[in-house]
Structures are given as structure tokens and as C-alpha cells.
Amino acid sequence: MATPDSLSLFTSLGLSEHKARETLKNTALSAQLREAATQAQRTLGSTIDKATGTLLYGLASRLKDPRRLPFLVGYIANKKIHTETQLSAALEYVRSHPLDPIDTMDFEQECGVDVVVTPEQIEEAVEAAINRHQPQLLVERYHFNMGLLMGEARAVLKWADGKMIKHEVDMQVLHLLGPKTESDLDKKSKVVKARPEAADRRKAKDVVENGVAAGQALALMEQLRGEALKFHKPGENYKTPGYVTTPHTMNLLKQHLEITGGQVRTRFPPEPNGILHIGHAKAINFNFGYAKANSGICFLRYDDTNPEKEEANFFTAIYDMVTWLGYTPYKVTYASDYFDQLYTWAVELIRRGQAYVCHQRGEELKGHNPLPSPWRDRPVEESLLLFEAMRKGKFAEGEATLRMKLEMEDGKMDPVAYRVKYIPHHRTGDTWCIYPTYDYTHCLCDSIEHITHSLCTKEFQARRSSYFWLCNALDVYCPVQWEYGRLNLHYAVVSKRKILQLVAAGAVRDWDDPRLFTLTALRRRGFPPEAINNFCARVGVTVAQTTMEPHLLEACVRDVLSDTAPRAMAVLEPLRVIITNFPAAKSLDIQVPNFPADESKGFHQVPFAPVVFIEQSDFKEEPEPGYKRLAWGQPVGLRHTGYVIELQQVIKGPSGCVESLEVTCRRADAGEKPKAFIHWVSQPLTCEIRLYDRLFQHKNPEDPAEVPGGFLSDLNPASLEVVEAALVDCSVALAMPFDKFQFERLGYFSLDPDSRQGQLVFNRTVTLKEDPGKV
Fold first, then answer.
1. What does pLDDT average to over the chain?
2. pLDDT tens per residue across span 639-659
3. 352 catalytic per annotation
4. Which of 21, 421, 486, 745 does the annotation list as catalytic?
5. Known catalytic residue: 236?
6. What CATH number does domain 119-178 carry, 1.20.1510.10, 1.10.10.10, 3.20.20.80, 1.10.10.2420?
7. From 22, 120, 236, 271, the catalytic residue
8. Which fold has domain 223-484?
9. Rounded CA gap, 748 and 457, in Å?
10. Nearest to 85 by CA among 157, 150, 13
């Protein structure tokens, strides 16, 4: 039996509640883990972080000799053993040295204790591996097995962090080969020796990793063509599995074809009660994209049937985001356009004995098995009079509803069609005090607009029967509802209620805070719409719900910005550098290519003066081995200038901090190649730069098993860093809000709307390369 104390202890180590409960079923393991955690807490005198907790669990589950537990826990708690590689070495050591006492010096040497692997050592090891394989790399490019490079670097640096090695490999390969081309994205052809039937099975299986089909995703338009999706053709609704026909169906379909001419018609029907988010991007691409791919039309229809939650700014924002993603609605419509017709049909439904006025309260209708309505069989005439009374405002809110006589797939009985709400509507004012529900409105608006394919997310599958039932009960044209899987992202919340809580708590500024995944937030952060559309294409038209990692979206952003964001130079932590032998009496004009890989895209001009500013990290007075940037006796090149600078003097302030450098410069000889070229600015503009990171620390901040304290307790304190006095070259002086740049060696940035003349503000969109810690 799991005790609350043990369960709490194990989850505090980073175990999920499920894993903690499974651990408690193993008496020996839970006892050893409890002892390890207790000893670690005693050593630390504080709570145990997740990384340490993970190692303690690995120790407790793999240690065969309990006598060694205190010895090894001490090393883990004191961070002397802090990687999985070290733990494996330690366990192997104590297994192979069963006798007391342990030779601590030999143990520490064998387990890499106090071994520090610097970034420069990793850089050097990776560079050596790349040099060994450079000819093959240049031929195979991104089809080369990068694992070979990581393995060779790891062999040299046994105790290095594997994620840091991968990051360095990615960076150096990118520097050598440049961005990926179309041919790099093609699947590498392989000679596979396998039985034909085995090959056929592999081909038939859609291999998916992180929700993205292995290999290059089909372009969205190719995925959405009718023959690819196997949707019904317009007018052939009856061929769809599960479609319900009546004696009137074929005649209604004939009339439908006469009106549409056999044209595909879809609609995107958002509720105007919030800002669209990344999940809506898939819906927009699917609805508008399917129509476009099949030479059809798509309506933007606002489902404005709940006036208490609707705001005018949401209507505008939704339209803006649809057009920002590159789509133009055939027509903008509103459910409220059809209120008169919907009311007339409701009266007809009562007359046909298919609806009735009910007085059960909302709370009585909740739950899995609500009581049947005692008014279900009331006379038609009585319901007609009562519905008219509802229309005239003779009932208070909640006193009466109109319900339809059907049972839905999820067992829900008699869904509500109309309810009383004394709230003015943004378009119809006080004309109505009763408003239709989604279950009633959705299919009938689709019928009015002669939608051929009603594309909905998977949760609406339970409403498919009511969709068909209602159209057939009124003898009107019945479209076909098709469902697809929702798109979600880890490390995100998208519900309106929770975003409002974040705003109220001061965690974010508003709906468009760049740390959110609303579309307005992504636009403000600098995500190009093409990248979001490409991401949706890579996800594909899946039936299952898909939860993606944010870094996959960011990869799509990099792909687009690599080709579209002109280069500029900026310095986040400036260090003043004085060139004592500057080669001219005044500043020089330097021509910098907008896209170094394609100079045909033009150049911009920046000044090069006797005083330049470089990043503080690009200079070290006492560099560690392998450091390649500016140091004593180690010159560096200044990007795009053709000059090399060499250190002559370090000027320090009263506190001993470096305030500026004096250097000499010389033209780079044809045979001279400095170890590094660094970016710089001269006569720069001062700007504010906002560096964004994930808003939440856990993948599923809304999951109580993962975040027991609720999503507001999971905020990442480092999600925003503001650099108030960064420097940027003057080529960006005339930039407009949302203009995008690559700041060389730093990442991609977008001009924020907060910018004013002389006060530029940039948002970091993404880093140049994926952060290995986020994979």
C-alpha cells in the first residue's frame, strides 16, 4: 500500500505519480530509493532537484550491494557524479571492487570526478572529427551519418555532455555545409536486402516520429487533394460510411449540385470568444487548404451564438490571422445571419414532434446519467406556445430550454437547441433573447451555405449523429462531417480562461505575449506565416490527436528565415575596442551581403570606425586551452572588413573589470587565416532586445500528475531576459514592426511594435540552431 509520505517523496525526486506508485509496489526498490533520498536530503540540507533525483533513482534501481549506497549517494548529492555516464562507471567500479576499503582516488579517476570538459575542448574534438571525414561530408552533405562524428568526439572526451557534443556537431556542420537545400531534404536512397513482402509492409506502414511522418512531408496541397484524402465527391455524400439517407436525400443532393455546380465548399467556423492559437492554424490550413487544393471555396463563418463571451476585437483578430496565414475567405458570414431561418426551423421541428420545451435546470442535465425530462412528451401545441413565450422574454434565464429528441453517440440525451439569455448581441442588439446552441446551429448553417465537407476536430465525432439527424428531421440538404485530430504543443496552454489567468498574474503581458502560442503572439515573436503553414504540412492530416514538441515548429521557422531574413550585426554585451592604427582618417563604408550565401540578393552598408564594439565573450585575458577568439597573441578577423585585429592593451576600471581594449589592425593576407572571425558594430544604434524562452518548465503544465501545483506554479523564471542597452548596426534603422533579421552569430530577430523612432525593440524569434537542451 502506497503511503502518502513515500509517494510525495518519490514524486519530489521527479518521478511521475504513475512511476512512483509502480516503484512502491517493489518493496526492495522503494526501500533503497527512500534511503537514498533521505541521505541525499541530509547531505544537501535542502530539496533535491530533478537531475539529482533521476540519478538517485538510477542508483537505487541498479545498485546490487546496499553497503555502497551511502558512499555513492554522497558523490551524487555533492554533484561529483552528475551524469548518467559517470553513474554507470561508478556502479561498474563498485561491482568490480567488492572488498573494503574503496580506493577513493582510483574510484574518482575511473568515474571522471572533477573532470571539467570545456566548450573549447568539445569544439576542438568535433572539429578534428569533421576534418577526418570532410571529403565524404562534402559529398554526402546532410545525408552523412552525423552519429559517427558524435561518437568520435565522445571517444576523445569520455565525460563530455552528449547534448553539448550534438549541439557543436550541428553548429560546425552548418558552418561547413550551409543551410539545407531541397536535395538535402530528400530521403537518402538505401539498398535494402529484404524480402519483398517485408518491404511492402514497411512501405504500407506510416512511420511517425513526434507526429511527423518520417522523411520529407508532402506539400500541403498534395495531401489535401480529394484523391489523396479519399473524401467523397460533391453530391456523392451518400457514399460516405455512416451517412444517413432518407427518401428525400437524392432529390436534395440534386438541388445542391444545381446550386454549387459540383464545387467543393468548406468553412472555418471559429467562436469569436478568444484569440486563435497554433491548433487553429491546422484547422485554417485544413479547411482553406482543402478547398484551394480542389478548386473550391471556403467561408469564414463566425459562430456568434453566445453573446456573453463575444468581443468585437476577437472578430477582427480572427480575420487578421486567417489573412496573415495567406488565405482569403470566399465570404465572411455569421451564424447570426441565419437567426430568422434557424428560429423558423426550430418551430417546424416542434411541429414535427422532434423538439419540446423543457424546464430542467442546467445542473440537472450534467453528468453521465441525467434524469429523463418529465416534459419530453408534452403536447406539440403546448411546446409551440411555450417556445413563443421564450421568444417574447416571458421566462428567466435557465427556466426553459428547447431540446431535440435524440440520443447522441456519447449517450447524451436530447441536446439543447435554444436557451434564454438576456444579453444584447453585437450584431442583432436586443432583437433576440433566445440563442441557438452549437449542436443546433452548426449543421444547419452548413446546410444553408451548401458546405460539401464539414471538417471538424475529433471531439465533434460524438455529435455526428445529431448532425445527420437534425438535417434529416427538417428535410434539408445534409453535408458530410469529417473529423481530424487536434494539434497541440508541449510546454503550452491555449485556453482563453488560462491565458487570462496568466495575464492577471503578470506572467505575460497580453494575448500577443511572444511566449504564448496564440497566432498573434507567434506573429509578434517573428514567426513567418509560411513557417506555420509548413509546420502544419509536416504534421499532416492526421486523425489522431497530435502533440508536438515546440522545437519542431522552430525548425520550420529557421528554414524560412534562413532564406528570407537579411543579415545584420548586433552586440548584446558590448566591449569597447579602440583601433590605434586605424587605416583611414575617417570611418570606412563596409559592404555587407544581405545573404552571404547568395550575394545576388544585394548588400547593405555599415560604417567601420576606429572604435568598434564586440561581444564581451569574444575576448578573454586568460583563455582556457582551445579558446579561439581574441586573446593575448591570438588575433581575430572582423567579419566582412578584410581586417585582422591584434590585442595591444587591456584597460580596466577601478574595480578591476575590463572596460575597453586597444588593438592594432592589419589587412588579412591571402595566406593568413585567423582562428576565428567575430561580429562587431561601429557607430551603432542602441536598442532593447528581448530574449524569450519557454514559458513553462514541464511538457504538460496542465497535467496535475506532472505539475501538482497547477500551471501557474510551473512558470519558467527565465522565460524573458531583457537586454536594455544592446547595440545594432545602422542598417536596421528604417525597419518597420515585424521586419525580420538574422543577427550574425546570435539568432533571428523581429522588430517589435513597441518600437519608436530612436528606440528600437527586437524580439528574438529563434536561435540560429536548435538548443540541444530542448530536444
1. 89
2. 999 999 999 999 999 999 999
3. no
4. 486
5. no
6. 1.10.10.2420
7. 271
8. Rossmann fold (3.40.50)
9. 33
10. 157
For residue 3, what pLDDT is reported?
Answer: 60
2 close to 10: Cβ distance less than 8 angstroms? no
Note whether 575-679 and 688-767 share their fold. yes
Q: Which amino acid is it at 190?
A: K
Which of 496, 498, 509, 675 is labelled catalytic? 496
Residues 6 or more apart in contact with residue 720 via CB below 8 angstroms:
515, 690, 691, 692, 693
Q: Which of 78, 532, 135 is nearest to 327 (CA)?
A: 532
Is pLDDT above 70 for 464? yes
Under the banding of pLDDT at 50, 70 and 90, the label for residue 409 is: low
Q: H-type helices in 237-379, by residue range?
A: 249-260, 278-293, 312-324, 339-351
Three cell numbers written together for 59: 542508483
Residue at grid coordinates 554526402: 140
What's the average model confidence in pLDDT over 589-595?
95
Rounded Cα gap, residues 709 and 712, in angstroms: 8
Q: What is the fold, at CATH topology level, of the domain defined by 6-111?
A: Helicase, Ruva Protein; domain 3 (1.10.8)
CA 439 to chain centre: 31
Using alpha carbons only, give the angle 374, 358, 393 rounded to the nearest 5 degrees. 150
**Is 68 a catalytic site residue?**
no
Count of CB atoms within 10 A of residue 373's CB? 20
Mean per-residue pLDDT for 383-409?
Answer: 93
Domain 575-679 belongs in CATH node 2.40.240.10: yes
Report CA-CA distances (Å) from 23 to 14, 48, 73, 76: 13, 18, 19, 20
Q: In angstroms, how far is the first alpha carbon of the chain from the final one?
A: 36
Residue pair 644/674 in contact by the 8 Å Cβ criterion: yes
Residue 756 is classified by DSSP as: B
Contact in structure between 146 and 165 (CB atoms under 8 Å): no
> Phi/psi zone of residue 515: left (φ > 0), alpha (ψ -120 to 50 degrees), beta?
alpha
DSSP 151-196: HHHHHH-TTS-HHHHHHHHHHHHHHHH-S--HHHHSPPP------H
| CA–CA gap between residue 323 and residue 520 (Å, rounded) | 12
Domain boundaries defined on the chain: 6-111, 119-178, 223-484, 575-679, 688-767
Residues 6+ apart with CB under 8 A from 665: 579, 581, 582, 583, 638, 643, 644, 645, 646
Question: Residue 300, Cβ neighbours under 10 Å: how many?
Answer: 23
Contact 508, 695 (CB under 8 A): yes
Q: Which three cell numbers stand for residue 53?
A: 533525483
Average pLDDT over residues 343-355: 98
**What homologous superfamily is domain 688-767 in, according to CATH?**
Ribosomal Protein L25; Chain P (2.40.240.10)
Please give the pLDDT value at position 263: 96
